[in-house]
Amino acid sequence: MKLGIMQPYFFPYIGYWQLINAVDKYVIYDDVNYIKGGWINRNNILINGKPKRINLRLYHSSPNKLISEIELLDDRIYINKILQTIESTYKKAPYFSDAFSVIKTIITQDEENLAKYLEFQIREVCNYLSISTEIIVSSNIQKNNELRGQEKVIEICKVLGAKEYINAIGGQNLYKYVDFSTQGIALRFLRTKEIKYMQSKDNFIPNLSIIDVMMFNSREQIAALINEYELI
Hints:
six-stranded mixed beta sheet; 232 residues
């Protein structure tokens, strides 16, 4: 069984969805510390040909809290501004109608817990992209929560019976092949190939939110892009 484990992020780039699609089971890593200044509650979309940030406002966020302990700031006016920004930016995109419907459902949900909000987002986008991977929430897994870092990941792999653990390429400095191998688990890293598609401007801006991919590509085209990676 192939397993992936990652923190939840706000409309992450296509590599995130490649990882989910590449594994049999995917764990939303919600019981680790919130990373301030990271991508958990923000991402970039294309505005006037340049990457611009959109983000969720959080209530008393802190790196001393678990992601599952963070709450969203209840600000309907701000949420509507995010939607208006996305709509005005992409309303002329070829797949705006289908994509915006899903994005609106996600952004306007009533959930106030950040982890649950992002879990709903992940499941909805997976449905849109026809990704059928089983999704599990880390805080629901019976495991030794005193462990940290690589040891905790190996523990989750063992509890779920994984024979192969696939991580994003950025995890090469965090995880060691030999440490997984001694536990009977093959470690591999997913590296996204160069991905380009027709945006609204001449110069392609890579690694934007999946929102951008959904706006400019059909579901069939996205399915092909999802497979543009290599495992090392």
